[in-house]
Structures are given as structure tokens and as C-alpha cells.
Amino acid sequence: MTCLTASRGATAALVLAQTLAVLYTTGFVWTLQLMDYPLAARLRDGASESYMAAHNQMFWRVLAPGLLVAGVTSVLFVVARGPAVPLWAALLSLVLLVLIMTLSGVVATPDRVALAKHFSASVHAHLLGVSWVRTAAFTAWSGLDAWLVWRLMR
């Protein structure tokens, strides 16, 4: 695999774009984890289902912009990066993206859809558990990006 060398300015722009996108999505998933999902369990008599149905309609609209920018920059880091972005950091960014997308789309989405139909404590607990892994992955990604920003500033 060859790497096109990006200029320092282009590398800085990519790092900044990814950092802002990842910080945005990290804040969003922490809000989901600490507030949104736990509150869904407190609603009763059909309110939980309607809440989750509305949540599911808005979820990707809120998450997609940050995730899209982070995804594009992750791919660009692998193929065109400057010396401030080591290959291992670019690959780790891509691995975190794949992990998060898999957890969000393949694992958490079926749980959210199920909860919109009927509240189940076990499905809710599973969603919270999966979301902790996703939240940890986003937090690690934020740390990686903070390190890249620091590296660029040296």
C-alpha cells in the first residue's frame, strides 16, 4: 500500500475536520448513553415505544453528518496523509470507524427497532451494553485525534 504524501496544510485540515466530527459524535453518544437511553426505560404504558420510534427517526439525522466526515477523513488518512499522521494511527481510526458502524448499524439498530415496537428490559439492557462499547470506541477515537492535533502543533 502506498501513501500519497499530503501537504502539512492538507494534513492539518484533515486532522481538524476529523477531530471536530469525532468530538461532535462522541458528545452525542455520551448523551445517548447517560441520558437518552436510560430515560426510555422510565417511560411506561406505550410512551417508551413512541419515544423510541421518534428517536429512531431522528437518530441517523443527528449522527450521520459527524460520522460521514469522520469516515471520509479516516479513509483519506490511509491513502493520503502527511508525516504527522502515522500509518498505525490512520489504520486505528479506520478500525474504530468500522467497529462503531458495526455496533451502530448491525447490533444497536435492531435493539432500537425492537424497543420501538415493545419495551423489553433485556433488549434495553443489551442496547445499553452495546452502547457502552460504542461510547468507549468514540472516546478512544477522540483521544487519538487529540494526540494527532497535539502532534501537528509541535
Question: Please, could you describe this protein's structure?
Answer:
- The protein is an all-alpha fold and 154 residues long.
- 84% of the residues lie in helices and 3% in strands.
- The chain contains four helices and two strands.
- The protein has helices spanning 8-40, 47-79, 87-117, 121-153; strands at 4-5, 80-81.
- Strands 1-2 form a two-stranded parallel ribbon.
In short:
The protein has 154 residues and is mainly α. 84% of the residues lie in helices and 3% in strands.
Low-confidence stretches: none
Q: Which of globular, elongated, flat, extended, rod-shaped describes the shape? A: elongated
Q: Report, as a whole number of angstroms, the end-to-end distance.
A: 28 Å
Fraction of residues in helix: over 70%
Put simply, the count of helices is 4
User: Helices and strands, in N-to-C order?
Assistant: EHHEHH
Q: Largest sheet at a glance?
A: 2 strands, parallel
**Beta content:** under 5%
User: Could you tell me the number of beta strands?
Assistant: 2
Report the radius of gyration as a whole number of Å. Answer: 18 Å
Strand order of the largest sheet: 1-2
Q: Provide the structure class.
A: mainly alpha
Mean pLDDT across every amino acid position: 91
